[in-house]
Amino acid sequence: MFVNKEIQKDIARKGGVRLPKYVLFDKEAYSKDKNSYKQQIENEIGYPIFCKKIEGTESLGTISVRTPEDLDAALLEMSKSGDVFEIDEFIDGDLYG
Q1: Rounded Cα distance, 38 and 25, in Å
Q2: Cβ distance 66 to 48 under 8 Å?
Q3: What distance in Å separates the CA atoms of residue 24 and residue 11, rounded to the nearest whole number?
């Protein structure tokens, strides 16, 4: 079982699996220019967004983002955390595990 989602996605991508758009949260870039970083996320990922820690299982520490105000709160929360987060395009569908 995979625990690190970044490693999981890398292996899946190499195997030809289609993945949602995503970026790793860049705390330094966010700290330098919050508005520009938010705009970059909106442009690259769009709404809705799903933020989650890259280490761990299940849905522990996930953040659902549907509006610009939600994104402001999520970015602030991730910037205060010691964990590494990824910011994913939300894909509606069935969960298999």
Answers
A1: 11
A2: yes
A3: 16
Query: In this structure, what token pair is assigned to residue 88?
Result: 């994913």
- Cα distance between residue 58 and residue 28, in whole Å: 27
pTM: 0.80
DSSP string over 30-59: HHH-HHHHHHHHHHHT-SSEEEEESBSSTT
Residues in the chain: 97
Q: What one-character DSSP code corresponds to residue 73? A: H
Dump pLDDT digits (tens) for 31-84.
Answer: 999 999 999 999 999 999 999 998 876 677 789 999 999 999 999 999 999 999
Q: Which DSSP category does 67 fall into?
A: S
Helix (H) or strand (E) holding 88: strand 85-89
